[in-house]
Amino acid sequence: MINQRLCGLGRRLAACLAVAAAAGGGALADEAADYPQRPVKIVVGYSPGGATDVIARLVATELSSELGQSFIVENKPGAGGNIATENVIRSKPDGYTLLVLTIQNATNMSVYKNIGYDTNKDLQPIAQFMASPSVLVASPKLQIDSLQALIKTAKADPTALSYASTGVGGSPHLAGEMLKSRAGIDMLHVPYKGTAPAMTDVIAGNVSVSFMTTLGVLEQMQSGKMRPLAVAYGSRLAELPNVPTMAEAGLPDFEVTSWNGLAAPAGTPPAIVEKLSAAVNRILQKPAIQERVRGLGGQAVLRNPQEFAAYVQAETDKWAQVVKAANISMD
Q1: Buried b (16+ CB within 10 A) or exposed e, 179-195
Q2: Are 137 and 202 spatial neighbours (Cβ–Cβ below 8 Å)?
Q3: Where does the chain have alpha helices with state H?
Q4: Closest alpha carbon to 206 in 222, 185, 226, 221
Q5: Is 261 helix (H, G, I), strand (E, B) or coil?
Q6: Angle at 245 between CA 240 and CA 247, to 5 degrees
Q7: What CA–CA distance (Å, rounded) separates 12 from 164?
Q8: What is the C-alpha to C-alpha distance for residues 77 and 145, in angstroms, rounded to an integer?
Q9: Contact predicate 39/71, CB 8 Å
Q10: What's this model's pTM, rounded to 2 decimal places?
Q11: Alpha helices in 125-269 (DSSP H)
């Protein structure tokens, strides 16, 4: 008798739980259907005017049209994007505070030993915006016109060459360290505070080479102010058709890409994540938007949340190996 009563209670409890789950699922679906009901904030970890800020504002404007609510960009620069990232992670996971995720969110995981968050656990990637391949460039005053010539020069005299970066721990620094490791050479690292001073000294011949993305410096590459030696990407660039890839130049599996996209705090309802992802990908398929992205020196990239999350994890793992091998730390 007692067993029968327990079984009856169990069946009623299971039925109640099933109804509750169905109601919860319906609530989530309704929440996504009504989303957004108020303005949405997109946090950018860099100052206004840069390429990441520009693409964020472009997408924000389009999202406002697509989803019928204002998407407002808020800049919170500092600490390699960590200030903005921590601000978003601490926010309510309801889809109303989003982050422009960048390659630094992947590299910071290993560069900062005491970082206060985990990119791949505390954030939910939504959709990628763009990718901008890095190009190995040399000073035109340097008598080096190819990757193999650079390697030959460095092996003949380990003190002969130097490379510029936009700061310790940034992707140009890590790319230079990866080149040293893969090619078995040495070069002096010269860090700068940003792209402009690094580019100026490469052009002047004060520093031998650097890895620079096509964002903002494509004109200098095309005009010959900087000599592009190889593209750190899987294919040649239409803007630099005569410049070989790193693989073609002799170093396979060597890709360095500056990228960004949209992310939300972990725990954001999947239906809202999917709705935002679909909207961003519709935006990126517009020819006018693709042309704007190309004008920034990048390429629009279509990835769903699962694909983008896998890519961010792969980037985190790749750069962790480089950081460990070069013993780089910001702490």
Answers
A1: bbebbebebebbebeeb
A2: yes
A3: 2-34, 51-67, 82-89, 103-111, 119-122, 147-156, 171-183, 195-204, 218-223, 270-284, 287-295, 305-326
A4: 226
A5: strand
A6: 175
A7: 69
A8: 37
A9: yes
A10: 0.86
A11: 147-156, 171-183, 195-204, 218-223
User: Which of helix, strand or coil describes residue 266?
Assistant: coil
Q: Are 99 and 273 in contact (CB under 8 A)?
A: no
Q: What is the pLDDT of residues 116-134, one digit of tens each?
A: 899 999 999 999 999 999 9
* Nearest residue to 330 via CA among 118, 222, 153, 173: 173
Dist CA 86 CA 95 (whole Å): 16
The predicted-structure confidence for 244-265, as pLDDT tens digits, reads as follows 999 999 999 999 999 999 999 9
**Torsion over CA: 276, 279, 285, 290 (sign):** negative
**Residue from 278, 271, 267, 270 nearest 33 by CA:** 271
DSSP assignment letter at 244: P
Residues 183, 151 contacting (CB under 8 angstroms):
yes
CA dihedral over 105, 107, 109, 113, signed as positive or negative: negative
Per-residue pLDDT reduced to its tens digit, 58-102: 999 999 999 999 999 999 998 889 999 999 999 999 999 999 999
Task: Give the amino acid at 4.
Answer: Q
DSSP string, 300-317: E----HHHHHHHHHHHHH
How many residues would you count in the chain? 331
Q: By the 8 A CB rule, do 253 and 247 touch?
A: yes
Structure tokens at 221: 């590459």
How much is the CA Rg of the chain, to the nearest whole Å?
23
Strand partners, 62: none
| % residues pLDDT > 90 (the chain) | 76
Structure tokens at 114: 């005491």
Instruction: Read off the tokens for 5.
Output: 């009563």
